TrEMBL record:
The keyword Lipid biosynthesis does not apply. It comes from Waltera intestinalis. Residues 10-82, 104-176 form the Glycine transporter domain. The chain crosses the membrane at residues 6-27, 34-55, 67-85, 97-118, 130-147, 159-179, 185-202. This is Trimeric intracellular cation channel family protein. Pfam families: Gly_transporter. The keyword Mitochondrion does not apply. Belongs to the UPF0126 family. One of its GO terms (cellular component) is plasma membrane. It is a multi-pass membrane protein. Coiled coil: none annotated.
Amino acid sequence: MNIQDSIIFFMEILGTIAFAASGAMVGIRKRMDIFGICVLGVVTAVGGGMTRDVILGKLPSALEKPVYVGVSVATALAIFVLLYIKHDLLSGRLGTFYDKAMLVMDSIGLGIFTSLGVMSGIDNGYPDNTFLLVFIGMLTGVGGGLMRDMMAGEEPYIFVKHIYACASLVGALGCVEIYREWGRLPAVFIGAFIVMAIRFLAAHYRWNLPHPKSTS
């Protein structure tokens, strides 16, 4: 494994940990048991990538390389143990911990997996198909979180929380263009940074897409 592949693998693991942690947090808030928490962590971390791979007509990488599922389970268990011991983290004055943790973990996972999704489309022979690359990047980024929320009976995060899917869209477009100008690593890093920057700015300044006015 060369240095570039090692960096990409490290980012995959970081994104997996971030998304698995966000899935576990949702499971804990929904008072699921330890199995449900682990399942939600795994689905959040690998669900988008597995859907992407099916669309691209290849065996899902999460099944080829069980390390991603293993890391997801280990992360979910670690979150479970932490909050089992420090159960007051999600209550009282520390209640804001949940929202802040979800913002950070979801933003990191969204940024990394959006860029890696674009790279997967390029690696599978579609470097010139901008629409497909952006679609695959967004699907990889938001797919796991969408599955998480549906399984937990939550209103999908991507439709109601600040700028989410649109951040993935802009990051994927940036990743595609930067790849064509400067190559793989700059595209992955800058694409992920764009997504995370938009998410953090949207949360800080409370940016939201327009909603219809209430008729009640």
